[in-house]
Write a structure and sequence with these properties.
This protein has 269 residues and is an alpha/beta fold. 47% of the residues lie in helices and 14% in strands. An eight-stranded mixed sheet has the order 1-2-4-3-5-6-7-8, sandwiched between helices. β1 and β2 form a beta hairpin. α5 runs antiparallel to α6.
């Protein structure tokens, strides 16, 4: 499913659907707004969903090199919220989108109702940082399908024999291939940024005053259950670890993920 999208005057493409309070969905590296298909179907009856393409992804404008920072991405999202007059939305972010969600919650708390960070990283080891920086260099120097798509899918999905999981893998492959074809520079820049981050600063996390939920997969090698627990414990927030899940939790384990999302969201009311 490729969504019909509008574009904000600050260059953010988005798919809007549903009715009720606002929820903004922020995808991860290399993906597009379509990766939230299971959450959109689940939440659109009671909420207005804004599923965005990150800068340099999908149909969104690329960020200038001097703005290709975590702050630069956050500024685009906060401006998007203001331009579209979205009153106190709930931000839900995955992977890089999770870091953006946490950063906005810590530095712009007055514009949010709450935040949900799925598959965030926090205090990556030096070895893990070296590995992701090596991948970023490979993507920049040799942007082949093997490097940009196949190796990523192997880390995210493993060698599952599940028919359902392999259908999800094919869907994510399609999104990655579309970005490789149409948004290679934006993806390369975003991966380079991501490779330099070991997570949000503890100072930013301690500054969060809105309710937060952290979710990760039990078998996620990037965003480990230990990271998620540490994030939640910094200022006594909620967290969930989804059994058997890897990195693309919102899609592969949508039923469990949506269960935690809706319980948290309803608890805010």
């Amino acid at each position: 499913m490729i969504q019909l999208k509008n574009k904000s005057i600050n260059g953010i493409a988005y798919h809007k659907i549903g009715k009720g309070p606002g929820i903004i969905l922020i995808h991860g590296l290399g993906l597009r707004s379509e990766s939230w298909i299971e959450q959109i179907k689940f939440l659109k009856k009671d909420y207005t969903i804004y599923s965005i393409d990150l800068p340099g992804h999908g149909k969104s404008n690329i960020l200038p090199q001097n703005k290709n920072t975590l702050k630069g991405h956050c500024n685009k999202i906060t401006k998007f919220i203001k331009l579209n007059n979205i009153n106190k939305p709930i931000l839900i972010g995955h992977s890089l989108g999770a870091l953006i969600t946490i950063e906005i919650a810590g530095n712009n708390p007055n514009i949010l109702k709450s935040g949900i960070a799925i598959s965030p990283v926090y205090k990556r080891t030096k070895d893990d940082l070296r590995k992701v920086q090596k991948r970023a260099k490979e993507i920049k120097e040799s942007p082949t399908e093997e490097v940009i798509v196949n190796k990523l899918l192997e880390r995210w999905f493993g060698n599952s024999k599940s028919f359902k999981i392999n259908n999800h893998l094919k869907f994510i492959r399609e999104l990655l291939l579309r970005n490789k074809k149409n948004n290679l520079e934006g993806y390369t820049n975003a991966y380079n940024l991501f490779s330099k981050l070991d997570g949000n600063s503890t100072k930013t996390i301690k500054s969060i005053k809105v309710p937060m939920l952290y979710i990760t997969g039990e078998k996620d090698l990037n965003s480990t259950p230990s990271m998620t627990k540490k994030l939640a414990n910094i200022n006594d927030q909620k967290y969930a670890v989804i059994k058997g899940a890897k990195h693309v939790v919102p899609l592969t384990h949508s039923k469990q993920c949506n269960f935690h999302l809706i319980n948290f969201i309803k608890g805010l009311q």
